[in-house]
Write a structure and sequence with these properties.
alpha/beta, Metallo-beta-lactamase, Chain A, 7-stranded mixed beta sheet, binds zinc ion, about 25% helix
Length: about 250
């Protein structure tokens, strides 16, 4: 399985608008982060998880030329802004793209983008809407995916596991059932929005990630969805031996 981190940034990107670098050193390219999304290639199937505002640029920069399905974690802008653009992608690909999310997220998306759910138009646009369970296992284009939900502000966000890999974004807590599903996973790519500076904002920080990693016992922990408070050098220096920070374009095989 191949994973590409398309974006490792938090909701506002890094630097933020008006070139605001907050805590970060401006001359480090690893401090330049687009909104969080990943690309997965498994059994020759091509998936993305989330599609925020820079999705077109991320797909082009990483030379991705096809997509079979997109899994959506939750309905925040930084994870869904490019959904309307996927309708165009289907036309260019000449095949449909399956869009998977929880029932609750799909309800939000229907409000946000009613024109993407509009009968004939939806079929014409080639987005095939699918609902995944809140907790459990489901099959996407012949690939088994496990999922569970994490609390995030007033929302719930879906986490996804495929084979030995798990992606958990936008979380403030991982419930017991999630810890069980994640236990023993080889590579955990996980949101650490606040880095070394805990904040009560529906996100996590390094101490929170360390605590759950003690229970999950992954071989490798990669931190993503990083805000402009997370300077690459400063934070990397404080990480345990099996932890590292994600950066845009990072790719690995599992
Ligand atoms: Zn987010
Ligand atoms: Zn969010």
């Amino acid at each position: 399985m191949k994973v590409i981190v398309l974006g490792s940034g938090s909701a506002y990107g890094c630097p933020m608008i008006f070139n605001n670098w907050r805590n970060m050193t401006p001359n480090n390219p690893k401090n330049v982060r687009n909104r969080a999304a990943i690309y997965l290639e498994v059994k020759s199937k091509k998936f993305a998880v989330d599609c925020g505002p820079e999705f077109r640029l991320q797909v082009n920069q990483n030379n991705i030329s096809d997509l079979d399905a997109v899994l959506i974690t939750h309905s925040h802008y930084d994870h869904i802004a490019s959904l309307p653009e996927l309708a165009r992608a289907c036309t260019l690909l000449n095949h449909p793209i399956e869009i998977w999310c929880s029932g609750e997220t799909q309800k939000d998306l229907k409000q946000e983008y009613p024109f993407l759910f509009n009968g004939e138009e939806q079929e014409g646009r080639g987005l095939h809407w699918r609902v995944c369970p809140d907790v459990g296992e489901f099959e996407v284009c012949g690939v088994m995916i496990k999922t569970f939900q994490v609390p995030h502000h007033r929302w719930r966000c879906s986490a996804f596991c495929c084979q030995n890999f798990a992606y958990v974004t936008d979380w403030e807590e991982i419930p017991e059932e999630g810890l069980k599903i994640l236990h023993g996973v080889q590579t955990l790519l996980i949101e650490c929005n606040n880095g070394l500076y805990p904040e009560n904002n529906g996100h996590s920080d390094l101490e929170k990630v360390k605590k759950v990693a003690e229970v999950i016992e992954p071989e490798q922990v990669i931190l993503t969805h990083l805000s402009a408070r997370v300077d690459f050098e400063e934070t990397s220096a404080a990480l345990p031996h099996n932890f590292e920070l994600a950066y845009d374009g990072m790719s690995f095989e599992i």
